[in-house]
Amino acid sequence: MDGLVYRGVKASLELAKLDRPKIRDGEVLMTMQAAALNHRDVWIAKGLYPNLREGIVLGSDGVGTADGGVYIINPNQEWGLQEAYSGPGYTILGMPNHGTFATYLAVPRHRIVEKPSHISTEEAAALPLAGLTAYRALFKKCQLSANEKVLITGIGGGVALFACQFALAKGAQVWVTSGSAQKIDQAKLLGASGGAIYKETDWDRDLKKNIGGFDVIIDGAAGPGFAKLISLARPGARIALYGGTAGEIKQVSPQKIFWKQLQILGSTMGSDKDFSEMVAFVSEYKIRPVIDATFTLSSWQSAFERMDRSEQFGKIVLTLD
Questions:
Q1: Number of domains comprising the chain
Q2: Counting beta carbons within 10 angstroms of the beta carbon of residue 118, is it exposed (0 to 12), middle (13 to 18) or buried (19 or more)?
Q3: Which residues contact 137 (CB under 8 A, 6 or more apart)?
Q4: Quick one: pLDDT at residue 11?
Q5: Nearest-CA neighbor of 35 among 251, 318, 321?
Q6: Residue 218 maps to which CATH number?
Q7: Pair 193, 110 in one domain
Q8: What is the spatial distance between Cα 142 and Cα 73, in angstroms, rounded to a whole number?
C-alpha cells in the first residue's frame, strides 16, 4: 500500500510503499477514500511538533469503507474519563500512531462513525479534527445560544469556517476577521453578517462602533491582537482560545477582564461524546464542509505547500482510492 511517512526533520516526508496493516481483535481494516490536511501535518513535516517518531504515516482526518459501509474516523485516542479535559495519555491520530494518509488503516471499531448521507466522501474527510474543535469551543465551552453575536478570527481556516457554519446553524449572528477582503466576502456568502481586515490598524474600533461588541469570540491566533478581542467582548462574554499561531498574549488589561466578568476558555479537540454530538449536529442541520482544493496522494507536496502559504478557504483534501 502507499503511505505518506514522516522520515525525520532533515528527510521530512516520503510517499512510500508499506505493508498492509494487520488487524487485531476489535479492529477493522479501513480502505481509505479521502483524508484532509491540518496545520498540524505541516508543523510535523517541519519538525515543529512534540514527540515526533520517524516512520509514522501522517494524517488525522479521514473517511473510508469497511464492512460495506462508509465511515468517518474519530481522530481522538485515549481522551480519558473526564469530559472537562483530556487525560495524560491523550494523542491524536497521525502522530505518534499511524494516520490517514495511506490507502489502508487499521482502526478500532469503536473509533468510526457512519458518514452523514448528505455529504460527499471528500466533505466527510474534512470534518473530524476541525469540526470537533469548533463544536467544543462553541457549544461546550462558550455555551452559544441563538441570536448571540459571534466574532470568529482568521476565517478561511478549517476550525474558523466550521465555527462560522455551526454558529449560523444555531441562529447566531456572525462576524469574521481575516487578512484578506476576499475571504471576508466568501464568509458573507456563507451567511456571515460582515467582517474586518485585521491588518488594518483600527479594525477593532470599526467593529466596536458598528456592532457594539460580541457575546462569543472564537480565536485561534492569540498574540498581540488578543487585547483587541478583550475590548470587543461585551460584559459577560465568553472567549474560546483554541490555538496560538500569532504567539504569546501580551498587553492585556486585567481590569477589562474582571470588570466585564469575561470568561477566557482554553479549548482543543474534544471528547468522544463531543465527536458523536458534532457529527449528529452536522447531520441535523445538513451542514456541508467547505472544500478549498482536492489533490491526489501522489500530489501531496502541492497540497502541503498550499496550506503552508495559508491560501486556503476551507479544507485541503487528499483523495486516496
A1: 2
A2: exposed
A3: 159, 163, 218, 240, 242, 265, 267
A4: 80
A5: 318
A6: 3.40.50.720
A7: no
A8: 26
pLDDT of residue 10: 77
Q: Give the position of cell 485541503.
A: 316
| Residue found by looking up cell 495559508 in the block | 310
Q: Which three cell numbers stand for residue 319?
A: 483523495
* Residue 240 Cα distances to 86, 154, 156, 259, 276, angstroms: 17, 14, 18, 18, 21
- Between the alpha carbon of residue 252 and those of residues 40, 78, 152, 257, 311, the distances in Å are 28, 35, 19, 9, 30
Same domain? 58 vs 173: no
Please indicate, yes or no, whether residues 191 and 75 belong to a single structural domain of this protein.
Answer: no
What are 140-166's pLDDT values in tens digits?
999 999 999 999 999 999 999 999 999
Are residue 238 and residue 298 in the same domain, yes or no? no
CA distance 140 to 82: 13
147 and 250 share a domain? yes
Look at residue 50 and tell me if it is in a domain. yes
Domain that holds residue 48: 2-127+289-319
Please tell me whether residues 258 and 198 are part of one structural domain.
yes
* Residue 276, CB-side half-sphere exposure with 13 Å CA sphere: 6
Per-block mean pLDDT, blocks of 10 residues, the chain (321 long): 93 94 96 97 93 96 97 96 96 97 97 97 98 98 98 96 98 97 97 96 93 97 95 98 93 95 97 98 98 97 95 96 71
